[in-house]
Write a structure and sequence with these properties.
- There is one protein chain.
- The chain has 446 residues and is mainly alpha-helical.
- The chain has a domain of 301 residues: Serine Threonine Protein Phosphatase 5, Tetratricopeptide repeat, CATH 1.25.40.280.
- The protein contains 13 helices and six strands.
- The strands form three sheets. It has a two-stranded antiparallel ribbon.
- The longest helix is centred in the middle third of the chain and has 39 residues.
- The chain is elongated.
- The C terminus is likely disordered.
- One of its GO terms (cellular component) is plasma membrane.
- This is pH-response regulator protein palC.
- Belongs to the palC family.
Length: 446
């Protein structure tokens, strides 16, 4: 199950109070007002979400609200760059951080200057909402693979929902990367020397970490979908031999290894000095600007969990496809997987117990076969480590493309208006040329 993000909340702001329409035709007065209304809608739904239980939060509504607001915010920003709108004063946006470690277990509120700050936090909230929406969809599926009465048609419907959820996570990953690689550098270039420090939520390292974590979350769903049919076929007789519908154990192990690598990289990025050192706002109770312990714990446990599953499937591959020569490898990898799962058992949910039961079934079988038929020594962990392949990525992040401004330069409205002006100029030219030469010999000199 993917990480459950706590959604931020934000304070109110009126763009009409900080923006002046300086265009010749006063084109943007209504747009400025509409942007204020869209942001008020965003503030209201975030406030409502704060008071709603996790299972009842409407993440889809939040996604749609953000998709309405972001193009309007972009419109304000491009108009300012083009001189169509001027700022009366630097706008300050109030956002409550949700990824900062906090001594009092509450989210500190920060006041951040510049429109770049609001763009960054709005996009961050957008990615959170997509990820949480994916989690909600997966939670609704239950453990359908273990339902012996499920039909093939119903199973495929569930698998399609896994695909939808994975796609949402890939989109979230792309947004986190966009924040890190584009929005934050743009903000840095536009910032004044006196600009306030940013929380960990808005550090490039943490957003890179979240991009990797979301991609790993998506990959876990791809693995689940890949194993869906074989998990159903294994309901009656779990363990070896694998059903014919089972995908290659070697492939499954590589997919888990990539998950582990992504979570591990995310964990490292979330703990980098720059993601902690830049984040402590003056007067906040944030614990040295660190990322929340919940997120760090999640990344650590997912790293260990997928490492263990990679060892499991390497052991199964050795046992099923390695023949006599790899009988010891099968036992060694499964012992290693069992050890890592047992370290997690007290901290995690039912999935740890389920995987531990599965590992024990395979281990008993392959140990019995090795002790009675193969008689191969069980390698040490260091020997087995040298035989672990590199991971394999099944999905890629969805590249985020900044939304087209709802108004101003580059918007459809602007393109349409310019086209109409050109058409009008063209019609005027034709009309003028029609008047000239309306009699025989007009324009000729004798």
């Amino acid at each position: 199950m993917s990480y459950l993000y706590e959604l931020p909340t934000t304070g109110a702001i009126s763009f009409s109070e900080v923006c002046t329409d300086t265009s010749a035709e006063k084109l943007y007065i209504s747009h400025i007002s509409e942007t204020t209304q869209s942001r008020a809608n965003l503030r209201a739904i975030l406030k409502e979400s704060k008071r709603t239980q996790d299972g009842e939060k409407d993440y889809l509504k939040l996604v749609k609200t953000l998709e309405e607001y972001l193009p309007k915010l972009r419109g304000i920003m491009v108009c300012i760059v083009d001189g169509e709108i001027e700022l009366k004063s630097e706008p300050t946006f109030s956002w409550r951080t949700t990824l900062s470690a906090n001594l009092f277990n509450n989210s500190p509120r920060l006041s951040l200057p510049s429109l770049h700050a609001d763009l960054a936090y709005s996009l961050l909230t957008y990615a959170f909402a997509l990820s949480n929406l994916a989690r909600t969809k997966v939670s609704a599926l239950g453990t359908y693979e273990h339902d012996r009465a499920i039909s093939d048609a119903d199973r495929k419907v569930k698998e399609n929902q896994l695909t939808v959820a994975a796609d949402l996570l890939c989109r979230a990953s792309g947004i986190f990367s966009y924040i890190s690689q584009t929005v934050l550098p743009d903000w840095e270039r536009a910032a004044t020397p006196s600009a306030s420090v940013k929380p960990p939520d808005l550090s490039p390292e943490v957003n890179n970490a979240l991009a990797k974590s979301s991609l790993a979350d998506a990959q876990t769903l791809a693995i689940r979908k890949l194993l869906s049919k074989s998990a159903y076929d294994s309901n009656v007789t779990p363990g070896p031999p694998l059903p014919k519908s089972h995908p290659s154990p070697a492939l499954i192990s590589k997919l888990h290894l990539e998950c582990s690598s992504l979570y591990s990289s995310a964990r490292t990025l979330a703990k980098t000095p720059s993601s902690a050192g830049k984040g402590k706002a003056k007067g906040s109770s944030s614990a040295d600007g660190e990322v929340s312990a919940d997120l760090r714990r999640y990344l650590n446990e997912e790293t260990v969990f997928h490492d263990a599953l990679a060892r499991k499937w390497l052991g199964v591959d050795a046992g099923e496809n390695g023949g006599t020569d790899r009988g010891g490898d099968a036992v060694g990898f499964l012992i290693w997987a069992k050890k890592e799962l047992e370290e997690l058992k007290g901290r995690k949910k039912d999935r740890i117990s389920d995987e531990l039961d599965s590992v024990n079934v395979f281990l008993r079988h392959y140990k019995k076969v090795n002790d009675s038929l193969h008689f191969r020594p069980v390698p040490t962990q260091s020997d087995l480590q040298s035989r672990i392949p590199t991971g394999r990525l099944a999905l890629a992040a969805k590249t985020f493309v900044s939304p087209q401004p709802a108004f101003g330069p580059g918007s459809m409205e602007d393109v349409r208006r310019r086209a109409e002006e050109l058409e009008l100029d063209d019609d005027t030219g034709k009309s003028g040329s029609g008047t000239q030469g309306s009699y025989a010999g007009a324009g000729s000199y004798f």
